[in-house]
Amino acid sequence: MTGEPPGEEFGSRAAGSDPEPVAVGDLHVAVDVDAAVDGDRLAVRSADGRIDVSADSLRALGRLGSLRESLPERVDRLLDRVPLGVHVDGVEVARVDPGVSAGPLARALGVAPARIDATGLAITVLRGRW
């Protein structure tokens, strides 16, 4: 990690602007977080009525499960009701849209309620972004 701020591909809002609150049940959440997970960049941003999670690799995304387990139960339950986009190296690999079922691949991989974008996942794997 170079310490440089992530590029615009790491979120849908303009760099330098304030995060836009996203309704999560009765909560309004504004997120603007940059982190490193084992040297891989991870960014979480709220904008346009959804939360975008962007990472350099699938491995970095895999570490988010333990983070979710540490949230209070009330907040964790509400996360399934928020539109969420998941990107690796600028390619959408999964998304959560409230009220839309996860599908068999996501359930088999244990990432429900997210729906897997098989094309995006294949592109990510072919790029070697494990």
TrEMBL record:
Highest rank taxon of the organism: Archaea
Region (Disordered): 1-21
Name listed for the protein in its UniProt record: Uncharacterized protein
